[in-house]
Amino acid sequence: MHNTIIKLESEKTLAIELFNIMQSLRSSLKLKKEQQFYGSIALSLLRKCDDHTKVTMFKREADVLLERIINYLEKWYNFDDDNKFKSLSAMALQNKPDLNNFLKICEDFHIEVNEDLLFEEYVTLLDFMEKFSGNFDELTADQQWVAYFKKSNAPP
Fold it and tell me: Which residue of 53, 89, 140, 144 has the lowest C-beta tally within 10 Å?
C-alpha cells in the first residue's frame, strides 16, 4: 500500500497509469484478505502468541479492517468499464495494445479521428513494440512513448 501512495502522490504519475494503480491496490488488498496476510511483523507476532483466542480475535478484526478498506475504495473509485481512466490505461502500454481500446478512448473523450489513419498508426506501434531493442517493460509509460516517437516511422 505504501508504494501505491507514493505512486499516487508522485508528480511523475500519468493519468494513463491511474486505473492500473488503483486496480493493483484493490487486487493486493483482496489477496491480503484471502490469504490472511497482515504483514510480516504481525504474522511473526501471531506465530509467537500462545493465546489462540487473541490470535483469532486479531485475525477477525484485521479481516474486518481489510474489508472496510476494500469497500471504501470501491465506493469512492469507479472500477467499472465506464471509467474513462480505464480506457486511458490502454495508453500505458503495459500489455499489447488493442485497436478497440484506442477507439474507445476517442469515443470517451469525444475525439474525432480518421479510423484508417489510426489503424496505420496502431500497426506502426505494434511493429515498434515487437522490434524494440531493450527492455520495453522497464521504461515508464512516458519513456515508452518518447522512444516510440523518436524511433518509429509513425505517420505525421
Answer: 53
| Burial state string for 89-106 with b = 16 or more CB within 10 A and e = fewer than 16 | bbbbbeeebebebbbbbe
Residue 155's pLDDT band (boundaries 50, 70, 90)? Answer: low
Answer yes or no: are the C-beta atoms of 90 and 102 closer than 8 Å.
yes
The pTM is what?
A: 0.83
Cα–Cα–Cα angle for 63, 65, 69, nearest 5°?
Answer: 115
Percent of the chain scoring above 70 in pLDDT: 97
3-state secondary structure 66-128: HHHHHHHHHHHCCCCCCCHHHHHHHHHCCCCCCHHHHHHHHHHCCCCCCHHHHHHHHHHHHHH
